[in-house]
User: Fold these one by one.
Assistant:
Number 1:
Amino acid sequence: MIPAVLSIAGSDSSGGAGIQADIKTITAQRLYAETVITALTAQNTLGVTAVQNATPEFVLQQIDTVFDDIRPDAVKIGMVSSAEIAHAIASGLTRVKASNIVLDPVMVATSGAALLADDAVQVLIDELLPLADIVTPNIPEAQVLSGIEITSAADMLAAAQAIQRKMNQGKWVLVKGGHLDDGANDLLLTEHGREVWLHHRRIDTPNTHGTGCTLSSAIACGLAQGFDMQAAVSKAKQYLSGALENNPNMGKGTGPLDHMWEYR
């Protein structure tokens, strides 16, 4: 049977991020993609012009319906635009006993548009973080989740440790370092609190729309296939690097990745 991966996220009408990026990533890994849409966005490579949230009740109904039939082997959570939707996701995933949960705490779009309401941050911390097997914040998101200003590798570690303390025991944290000036190295904090630095060169490209969505859904794919967490993260990083290096140069702003680069 083909492993299934569920993406719970917002829709990106330009196709570069959100649900669309997740479907492309999951398909590129030869797995079966399922979706729960939390919001519709009118957006392109230049920015987000409008957001229409789904109702919490409809989000919960989507989760129940998916799990009643084709139960996913892993779940990726992306854009959660309101506190009520965050609570509905947490309630639904708890009820269906979901496993292999990857939380990408999307707060701001690549273009700079806010995608998470202020009152949803605390619900995300209190209800979704404890459910996650791994959380994948970038530097700005890690600062919000930890309350620690990050300007160095030491700050990244302190923030990752602070975030891990808010999760259930035995969970992982991946702090992405691409926003730091001195490199693009990521910090993976293991379930036992061991720090693993993922060193890689910064890829010189303006087309980074959807990188966080792509990485988190690729990690979920690795978990669905039975890889351990560190291997799933490493495999996902390799896939993302290829998608960045082979960018299609589309759009007038921050362009999308090439999710199907391995097939060209």
Note: The chain has a mean pLDDT of 92.
Number 2:
Amino acid sequence: MPDRALPDSLALIGNTPLVGLAGPSEAAGCDIYGKCEFANPGGSVKDRAALSIVRDAEARGALKPGGTVVEGTAGNTGIGMALVANALGYRTIIVMPDNQSREKMQTLRALGAELRTVPPTKFADPSHFVHTSRRLAKKTPGAIWANQFDNTANRQAHIDGTAPELWDQLDGRIDGFTCAAGTGGTLAGVGLGLKARDADCTIALTDPHGAALYNYFACGELSSEGSSVAEGIGQGRITGNLEGAPVDTQFRVSDEDGLYWVGRLLSEEGLCLGLSSGINVAGAVALGRYLIAQGRAHPRVATILCDSGMRYLSTLYDADWLRAKGLPVFDWLERA
């Protein structure tokens, strides 16, 4: 095999590019970088967790040839899981809330996953997509439940992969990292991996409205305020992946602020992203300003660009949908 050729499709997961973000850097007064996780083969950061969870299940002997992977997900983990499973000869059954984007559902079906949708509900409800997927896995012969929220093989993917990649890409100098939490795997894993290299690296949670982690890290209480339309982020409990997460500070970001950066990054820098990425970038700007106020000289801050806006054409990039949600409409959609 030629030296520059990858051995198989799974080797495409990870080693994503890091890009400097001009507008956010100017707004923060420091250097802001985005990890381009949309460059993974499944189009999101969740490919990393999917591969790590499947490999861990194989190593433990829980997942055997011809087996099935069952997962409850807002969509991106399911997409990553379907691609990984296809490459390794497994079936996938995905359970997701029926209010997620149509593009995610269509993608899962196109990849050959068996898709089950359920109404969105609180985690305490037995019909929640996570509990539904757990029960489904239990009654499916030869199946494992991926359990991305509490399976720490999720965050291990970021300890072993994302964190050292960031460290190398920034030449061993990274002053702060922030992202939102869905499972908490990315925040905790990158945080643990970076802290192991530099204890002074500041790890910050960026939380959307409607999630409970901001108040938890700020005052020790799991309580939420407001709501968000962002998919795949926002958490109301301390998941297995969040336990021991080295969070130094926290920011809360509105959908409007996230959309502001989604709009600017597309119109000024040619990056078409989802709302979770916009919220992460808003958090990175806040972290950069925070570090400057703390006396850091021209800090470097990194965040996660989770997935492409192409996954949200029927929601985030649809003028009627935005108006129905009471959100601002991008100028170019108004002109369309």
Note: The first strand starts at residue 18 and ends at 20.
